[in-house]
Amino acid sequence: MRALTWHGKHDIRVEDVPRPEIVNPNDAIIEVTATAICGSDLHLYHGRVPSMREGDVLGHEPMGEVVEVGSGVETLDVGDRVVVPFTISCGSCWFCQNDLYSLCDNSNPNAELAREVMGHSPAGLYGYSHMMGGYAGGQAEYLRVPYADVGPVKIESDLSDEQVLFLSDIFPTGHMAAENADIDEHDTVAVWGCGPVGQFAVQSADMLGADRVVAIDRVPERLAMARDHGGAETINYEEEDVYDRLMELTGDRGPDSCIDAVGTDAHGTGVVATSDRVKQRLNLEDDRPTVLREAIRCCRKGGTLSVPGVYVGRADNFPMGPLMNKGITVKTGQTHVQRYLGPLLDQIESGNIDPSFVVTHDAPLEDGPELYETFNDKEDDCIKVVLRP
């Protein structure tokens, strides 16, 4: 079958790879009908994520049709149309039983690798390094789905692929980010990053009752999308000082909640941002915490910082003193996607939100390498790429 494969920094290829097979009785195989490139795939593209191997199949935002099920699968049948969460979860461990699906104890076969780095292993992920399980990803014609009774959600309506595909990751991720922000009525929420996760964080903050949402980025078309589809006020950080503007908007109080939807590859301006880039190139730090520093500075005393943006390792000059002295609560983590599938599918089916608004590019899988480059360079107004295997 054809698949997008990783061959090192800035080297994505379309190749023939073996078609997946049933390995365990609880596996299913789906024929992928649509799959997306995620902003976190760019961390792989940049070579930031350790334990990738040449030839690894990428992708963790797939959907498709079930074409084969293992003997132990009870909830899926051949022919079912499903969206597959990026988190692989067993459904039976303590974490899954407590709806903490991204922290599953059993789905990462390479848990020792993760434990050495993090102390404990989170759940396995599709197409996201061997430390996270070494699972083949969904930017391919077919995908093996372990624990098939726990992850995939069946789509039984006539909604298009583009309307439901983002249940696999970015819609639940943006929603959990807003939920973690502890939003109350009359709150002001600031969202750093207007990529796809940031767009859904903006939308979800509004859905959860925020009085005011402020979106921060430097890319005009992304800021325009946050204004037009999310009703957000916007700040272009290359044109005005973010702290000064947020203080002006909030009467010097600061946003009640701040959401970092950027993560490790944050851009920025000034000496500190330049220093981060240099230290990252010299392997003196793994992450560029520009947004974390700024969000902690801007957040009101006693406010909340929610971090859905992906970080991979060590961040230098982290402002622990301001974080502690301002009494800021921090919530973060990979998304417990399975927790949100039903409620968010209901929101889509009821017409309260149409997630397809983020799609700017829809192309065959064969165009994947070129579109990784386009997405990375933010060219051609690229915000979200959907590929058709």
From TrEMBL:
CDD domains: FDH_like_1 (cd08283)
SUPFAM superfamilies in UniProt: GroES-like, NAD(P)-binding Rossmann-fold domains
Residue intervals of the Alcohol dehydrogenase-like C-terminal domain: 196-265
Keyword set includes DNA-binding: no
Protein keywords: Metal-binding, Oxidoreductase, Zinc
Cofactor: Zn(2+)
Residue ranges constituting the Alcohol dehydrogenase-like N-terminal domain according to the UniProt record: 25-153
Keyword Phosphoprotein: no
Coiled coil spans: none
Family statement: Belongs to the zinc-containing alcohol dehydrogenase family.
Protein name: Glutathione-dependent formaldehyde dehydrogenase
Lineage summary: Archaea, Methanobacteriati, Methanobacteriota, Stenosarchaea group, Halobacteria
